[in-house]
């Protein structure tokens, strides 16, 4: 267990606040909804796959759980470990304290950096406070950080396509602030000022809309023809795969339900992509109780997906609610198989190895004493 040192009191806590999602005030019975339906015929669900947890989210959540097991509560986490209300609430119940900044963490305590990554300045501030840290940054975000550092060292200017203010973008920007300009979308391209249009590279946030990013890059290349591409795609496999799956489901759906939190970039993008690809209506919900049954009145076919930070249990609850309203026929629409697994952060692997080694010594000791 980590022992907070009390000599340097932490700043007044500004713990991460999670807005309460709106829940429909009155539930309507399935018969009432059926009577008001604007269609006849069988209802069905198209369940997009892949959906839900990606390898980076799984790794980050397991890292926090293992830290709790190894050190005991409290374990501090800077920002939401992943952008999902259910995950954050569940970990809070187990003894995790989510904070906005390192100055809220008692000196010497254990702090986990979230999957979205942090800037070198944040790491430095944690070191200055003597915090023990576990870096749960997704390896695919770390890859983008490394690219930023490498291009900045080669004196490139970096056009970082992403959402200003998003934690991941703050972290990547912080690797090379002097060399980086954030580009929120195609509408900003004309205002960008660069020192040398022949020494430019673009990088991106990992969870953007694939199509919108390409639109931004096309506009950038029209303006800066010598703009260099990143060495490999920055938009990650999980984001691309979930968008590809919902593109397939959306044209046949009267309603698409995206399970995911409002601050989850990839979940919000899924709703946008669903509408863009033909869903007549799309709604994002944190959990099943947020679904308004009146949405079903015009929806013979409902598409369902979930963001990369959403545990499957939440999708299961949505499917159970849909079944109650006559949508028991569920067809999974699979567009890719995923088998990527990331190893745990090195700090937690080392801690677990130490525990194993101690256990071995203990077992050996017992054997010797027989
Ligand atoms: S969405 Fe992509 S970048 Fe983000 S944690 Fe998952 S795998 Fe990593």
From TrEMBL:
Keywords: 4Fe-4S, Iron, Iron-sulfur, Isoprene biosynthesis, Metal-binding, Oxidoreductase
Annotated positions binding dimethylallyl diphosphate: 83, 116, 166, 264-266, 309
Cofactor dependency: [4Fe-4S] cluster
Identification of the protein by name: 4-hydroxy-3-methylbut-2-enyl diphosphate reductase
Catalytic activity: isopentenyl diphosphate + 2 oxidized [2Fe-2S]-[ferredoxin] + H2O = (2E)-4-hydroxy-3-methylbut-2-enyl diphosphate + 2 reduced [2Fe-2S]-[ferredoxin] + 2 H(+); dimethylallyl diphosphate + 2 oxidized [2Fe-2S]-[ferredoxin] + H2O = (2E)-4-hydroxy-3-methylbut-2-enyl diphosphate + 2 reduced [2Fe-2S]-[ferredoxin] + 2 H(+)
NCBIfam families, sorted: ispH_lytB, PRK01045.1-3, PRK01045.1-4
Region of interest (Disordered), ranges: 1-25
Residues bound to [4Fe-4S] cluster: 54, 138, 236
Active site positions: 168 (proton donor)
Pfam family, one: LYTB
Source taxon at top rank: Bacteria
Pathway(s): Isoprenoid biosynthesis; dimethylallyl diphosphate biosynthesis; dimethylallyl diphosphate from (2E)-4-hydroxy-3-methylbutenyl diphosphate: step 1/1; Isoprenoid biosynthesis; isopentenyl diphosphate biosynthesis via DXP pathway; isopentenyl diphosphate from 1-deoxy-D-xylulose 5-phosphate: step 6/6
Binding site for (2E)-4-hydroxy-3-methylbut-2-enyl diphosphate: 83, 116, 166, 206, 264-266, 309
UniProt-recorded Gene Ontology molecular function terms: 4-hydroxy-3-methylbut-2-enyl diphosphate reductase activity
Database matches in PANTHER family: 4-HYDROXY-3-METHYLBUT-2-ENYL DIPHOSPHATE REDUCTASE
Database matches in InterPro entries: LytB/IspH (IPR003451)
Organism: Nesterenkonia aerolata
Family classification: Belongs to the IspH family.
Function as written in the Swiss-Prot or TrEMBL entry: Catalyzes the conversion of 1-hydroxy-2-methyl-2-(E)-butenyl 4-diphosphate (HMBPP) into a mixture of isopentenyl diphosphate (IPP) and dimethylallyl diphosphate (DMAPP). Acts in the terminal step of the DOXP/MEP pathway for isoprenoid precursor biosynthesis.
Record-annotated membrane-spanning stretches: none
Protein's UniProt keywords contain Nucleotide-binding: no
Residues holding isopentenyl diphosphate: 83, 116, 166, 264-266, 309
Enzyme class: oxidoreductase
Cofactor binding summary note: Binds 1 [4Fe-4S] cluster per subunit.
EC number: 1.17.7.4
């Amino acid at each position: 267990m980590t022992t907070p040192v009390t000599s340097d009191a932490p700043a007044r806590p500004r713990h991460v606040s999670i807005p309460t999602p709106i829940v429909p005030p009155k539930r309507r019975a399935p018969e009432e909804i059926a009577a008001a339906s604007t269609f006849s015929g069988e209802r069905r669900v198209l369940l997009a796959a892949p959906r839900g947890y990606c390898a980076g989210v799984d790794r980050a959540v397991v890292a926090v759980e293992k830290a709790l097991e190894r050190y005991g509560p409290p374990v501090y986490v800077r920002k939401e470990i992943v952008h999902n209300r259910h995950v954050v609430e569940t970990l809070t119940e187990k003894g995790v304290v989510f904070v906005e900044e390192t100055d809220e963490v008692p000196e010497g305590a254990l702090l986990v950096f979230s999957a979205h990554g942090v800037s070198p300045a944040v790491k430095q501030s944690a070191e200055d406070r003597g915090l023990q840290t576990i870096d749960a940054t997704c390896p695919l975000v770390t890859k983008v950080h490394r690219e930023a550092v490498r291009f900045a060292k080669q004196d490139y200017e970096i056009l970082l396509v992403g959402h200003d203010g998003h934690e991941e973008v703050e972290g990547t920007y912080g690797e090379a602030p002097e060399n980086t300009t954030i580009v929120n979308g195609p509408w900003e391209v004309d205002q960008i000022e660069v020192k040398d249009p022949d020494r430019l590279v673009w990088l991106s946030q990992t969870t953007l809309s694939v199509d919108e990013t390409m639109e931004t890059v096309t506009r950038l290349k029209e303006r800066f023809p010598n703009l260099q591409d990143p060495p490999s795609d920055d938009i990650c496999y999980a984001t691309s795969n979930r968008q590809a799956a919902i593109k397939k489901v959306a044209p046949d759906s009267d309603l698409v339900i995206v399970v995911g939190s409002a601050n989850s970039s990839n979940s919000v993008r899924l709703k946008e992509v669903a509408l863009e690809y033909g869903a007549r209506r799309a709604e994002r919900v944190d959990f099943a109780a947020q679904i308004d049954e009146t949405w079903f009145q015009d929806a013979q076919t409902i598409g369902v997906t979930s963001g990369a930070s959403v545990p499957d249990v939440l999708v299961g609850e949505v499917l159970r609610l849909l079944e109650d309203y006559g949508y028991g026929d569920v067809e999974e629409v699979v567009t890719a198989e995923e088998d990527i697994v990331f190893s745990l952060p090195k700090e937690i692997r080392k801690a677990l190895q130490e525990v194993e080694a101690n256990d071995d010594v203990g077992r050996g000791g017992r054997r010797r004493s027989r």
